[in-house]
Amino acid sequence: MTLGASLDCLAPPEAPALPLHAVTPAGLEALRARLAPAAAGFLDASGFSGAAQELRLLPGGEGITGAVLGLGEGEVTPWSFGSLATALPAGSTWTLAAPGMADAAVLGWCLGAYRYSRFRPAPRPPARLVAPPGTERARAIAEASWKARDLINAPPNHLGPAELAGAVESLAAAHGARCEIIEGARLQDGFPALAAVGQASPRAPRVAMLDWAAPGLSAGAPLVALCGKGVCFDTGGLDLKPAAGMLRMKKDMGGAAILLGLAELVMRLRLPVRLLLLVGAVENAVAGNAFRPLDVLRTRAGLTVEVGNTDAEGRLVLADLLACAAERAPALLLDCATLTGAARVALGPDLPALFTPDEGLAALLLEAGAAAHDPLWRLPLHAGYDSWLDSTVADVNNISGRPMAGAIIGGLFLRRFVPSGLRWAHLDVYAWNDTNRPGRPEGGEAQGLRTLLNALETLFGGIPGPGR
């Protein structure tokens, strides 16, 4: 499938453009002094106050001569500019007349311009921004976010395991990486729990494995391993979800989509690391050969798992992926998944739950999220609940029998498949915007993408290249 169309909301540097001024209430008087008297008088007469998202088009003798955006009293963020691509006249072109805000403006403008238009065209063309020099990183993040959103928004009949694995293959080809697709008997042998989850679907499960290293790196350079849950549709299996519970289950591959976006940014920005991306692409379907409650599955790590509920399938997919990644002894292991409804009950849709036993890594990720306006919230891997996963017939159950602490239980289950001492973090994400907000249109969302990129850049630095 074709993903991530070029950013049609950006204009080339030579395009004729109108000035866009952005101002806080405190800076309004200084802006008036810079504007032509007629424009300043219009702002006064229209009651413009500089409140957040307040927008005025400045009239002139031949039409519009510019625009003024209110930033409000708070911090300037990408969301300050997130409504402009659709609020300014369709097809108009603008240049930013506000120093020091270029990265936030480009990122917010582009994120707000996104529309999923594969099957229905966008209602109108976006207004375009001439991206200032030095904003290449912001553009790269926007493009990766668009691609992740496209994957999450794709209807499930158009994005199955083969198509999701194909997206990894396309990404590898675009950046000179190596990609291997593992399926059939090799999948049964090497990723048995993952294979069991997908065995009832006519769309066969598979693992897509991407390997890349920045040019010129030694074989001993740090390895970053990314494991993404790619459940392309989740019926719940034999523990069938109610109809309402299936309505957004095309997004159950959101963790994989987010890490595809992160992998693209690592390669495009040439971070000085070796990269391993593992995507478990499966569909949790219902058929006569579906895995059952009370089945005991073997895993790549050698642990046996009793299936307490077939709707807790994502952790079975990740268990095999984490074990595979751990065999390579990475410097950092990250997994991302739409794992539990319990995380949403606890934190709502905007705050992915962060789990890690590493205090330093937790602090780094939380700080990176705040800086990127892409926040996380840490929940504990509380050892006191570990026994809730006990099984009388296997090494571990995939659920707890208690209706509490569901997100923590999911994290504790995954921890069983990560060797002690390996630096690891798990993100339990929603990957969806329930409503339209500036920069965050309703639909799939690449939650945590900017946070993880910030953290990787802080941990491993960068090589001068595009966007750096």
From TrEMBL:
<dbReference type="GO" id="GO:0006508">
    <property type="term" value="P:proteolysis"/>
</dbReference>
<dbReference type="InterPro" id="IPR043472">
    <property type="entry name" value="Macro_dom-like"/>
</dbReference>
<dbReference type="InterPro" id="IPR011356">
    <property type="entry name" value="Leucine_aapep/pepB"/>
</dbReference>
<protein>
    <submittedName>
        <fullName>Leucyl aminopeptidase family protein</fullName>
    </submittedName>
</protein>
<dbReference type="GO" id="GO:0005737">
    <property type="term" value="C:cytoplasm"/>
</dbReference>
<dbReference type="InterPro" id="IPR048816">
    <property type="entry name" value="Peptidase_M17_N_1"/>
</dbReference>
<keyword id="KW-0645">Protease</keyword>
<dbReference type="InterPro" id="IPR000819">
    <property type="entry name" value="Peptidase_M17_C"/>
</dbReference>
<dbReference type="Pfam" id="PF21337">
    <property type="entry name" value="Peptidase_M17_N_1"/>
</dbReference>
<comment type="similarity">
    <text>Belongs to the peptidase M17 family.</text>
</comment>
<keyword id="KW-0031">Aminopeptidase</keyword>
<dbReference type="GO" id="GO:0070006">
    <property type="term" value="F:metalloaminopeptidase activity"/>
</dbReference>
<dbReference type="Pfam" id="PF00883">
    <property type="entry name" value="Peptidase_M17"/>
</dbReference>
<keyword id="KW-0464">Manganese</keyword>
<keyword id="KW-0378">Hydrolase</keyword>
<feature type="domain" description="Cytosol aminopeptidase">
    <location>
        <begin position="309"/>
        <end position="316"/>
    </location>
</feature>
<dbReference type="GO" id="GO:0030145">
    <property type="term" value="F:manganese ion binding"/>
</dbReference>
